[in-house]
């Protein structure tokens, strides 16, 4: 058995910036605090296009979840879920499969409290405390098992959380462990910022995260490195691409795909 990263229970600290609340602010939400807004503005000063990227990331999420539902996936696990918005995984999946079941996973107390308050009345939605770095614990969680049949194909949604996990923590190993726990036919969706087209932004953004979040590691990656998360899976067309290029609904939005420097892909777990 592979040892997992020790779990430290998250507590609410409104004086320290938080990734989920920063994302909420960038998307125009109100569920954030002054520390989150200050950190977000520092990052936006370096790369103001991040506001557009955040919205396009949501659009990709909708296309990808809809695709998985169209392939027959009826149950989803959203790992690293953010604060509920107007276009959540369950709403998208249910546009194809009305009885789709979804479990939202987060280690952030604000995300957990908001999610439980807004989604508690839905008998096919669960909210579980957890993260990608503890895949075995997560997939065995009774709260998740209440909604997810782990013997049937599952759609895994990972929106951006991997891009904040440094190389030293070996997130590739954790994603591979999760893959091995999934049944054949399961799908994995990943979105990740890359710096192939914005190499000059790496240093300044990493410096902000080091100062604001007290980090010493660098979690920045390029497309080739992100591709490694899909090892052992079969990427569906068009592969791992800039999100504007992934099955666009509006051909006009494929212009200058590198301007939204997020890559995304969906892969299927094949039979052995």
UniProtKB/TrEMBL annotation:
InterPro entries: SAM-dependent_MTases_sf, SAM_dep_MeTrfase_SAV2177_type
Keyword Methyltransferase: yes
Alphabetical list of Pfam families matching this protein: Methyltransf_19
GO biological process: methylation
EC number annotated for this UniProt entry: 2.1.1.-
One Gene Ontology molecular-function label: methyltransferase activity
Protein name, per record: SAM-dependent methyltransferase
Source organism (scientific name): Sphaerisporangium dianthi
Species classification: Bacteria, Bacillati, Actinomycetota, Actinomycetes, Streptosporangiales
């Amino acid at each position: 058995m592979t040892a997992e990263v020790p779990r430290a229970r998250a507590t609410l600290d409104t004086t320290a910036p938080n990734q989920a609340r920063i994302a909420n602010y960038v998307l125009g939400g109100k569920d954030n605090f002054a520390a989150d807004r200050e950190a977000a503005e520092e990052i936006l000063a370096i790369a103001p296009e991040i506001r557009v990227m955040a919205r396009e990331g949501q659009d990709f999420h909708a296309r990808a979840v809809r695709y998985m539902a169209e392939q027959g996936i009826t149950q989803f696990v959203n790992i690293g879920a953010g604060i509920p918005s107007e276009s959540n995984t369950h709403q998208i999946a249910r546009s194809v499969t009305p009885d789709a079941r979804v479990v939202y996973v987060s280690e952030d107390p604000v995300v957990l409290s908001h999610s439980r308050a807004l989604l508690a009345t839905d008998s096919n939605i669960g909210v579980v405390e957890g993260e990608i770095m503890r895949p075995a614990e997560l997939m065995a969680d009774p709260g998740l098992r209440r909604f997810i049949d782990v013997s049937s194909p599952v759609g895994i949604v990972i929106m951006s959380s991997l891009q904040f996990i440094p190389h030293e923590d070996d997130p590739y190993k954790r994603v591979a462990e999760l893959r091995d726990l999934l049944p054949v036919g399961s799908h994995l969706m990943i979105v990740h910022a890359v710096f192939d087209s914005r190499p000059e932004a790496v240093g300044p953004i990493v410096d902000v995260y080091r100062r604001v979040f007290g980090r010493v590691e660098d979690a920045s990656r390029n497309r080739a490195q992100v591709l490694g998360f899909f090892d052992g899976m079969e990427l569906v067309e068009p592969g791992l691409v800039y999100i504007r290029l992934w099955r666009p609904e509006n051909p006009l939005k494929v212009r200058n795909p590198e301007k939204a420097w997020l890559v995304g892909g969906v892969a299927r777990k094949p039979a052995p």
